[in-house]
Structures are given as structure tokens and as C-alpha cells.
Give the backbone structure.
Amino acid sequence: MSEGRPTDAYRCGQLYAALETLQLLADIGSRALGRADTQENAARRPRTHMTEPLIMVGRSLHSARLRGRAAAAGAVFRMIPDLLPAARDLPGSQDAGQCEEFARGRRDQLEVIGKETAAL
């Protein structure tokens, strides 16, 4: 993070955690975002691997609601605007240092999500 502000790489990791959690709550497809290889690919090329799940966030929210997980999914959904990177688009590619920031952002956000949704 630079000067106390999260980097776009860190924010992408946070956003990834939210999208991954929504897919898990929605039980959509194979929950591809939860796979280690998908996480690594998204860390290297966020735009390529995160754009479609971001576009499909409404579907994930609706599917989670249908499965009785509306409260948790709603809490995660409301986090998303604050997790979007400052840049207009998701980064096209990231170097090794940025991939580490991505991973740290993901871990940190999964912890936040766990605390926020534990009682729901």
C-alpha cells in the first residue's frame, strides 16, 4: 500500500475475495474463483479473469438469495463499491510484487467477510 492507501493490486485482491465469496454463497457452477489456479491467473491478469464474475454479481446475489443465503450475500454485495480499484478498468497484467499485494488483499478481505457474515 502506498501512503496508507490500498494499491489497485491490493484492491483487486479484495474484490476477488468478495466475488469468490458470492460465487460460493450462490453455489454457481464449479465456483471457479475458489480454485488455486484461477486465483493465480486472476492475480496476474485481473481484467481477463475478474471481469465476467464482476458482471455476473447480480446473478450471484439472486442465486444466493434463492438458497437462503440472502443476508450474507447482501453484506458481501454491499462491500463491492468500496473494493473497486481506483483505475477506470481492472489492471490488464500485474508483476510479481503486485501479485503478492493481490494475495494479501484477498486474505485480508476474506477475514473481513468472515467477521461480517459470521452472525448472519
Q: What stands out?
A: Helices lie at 8-26, 36-44, 46-55, 57-66, 70-83, 96-117.
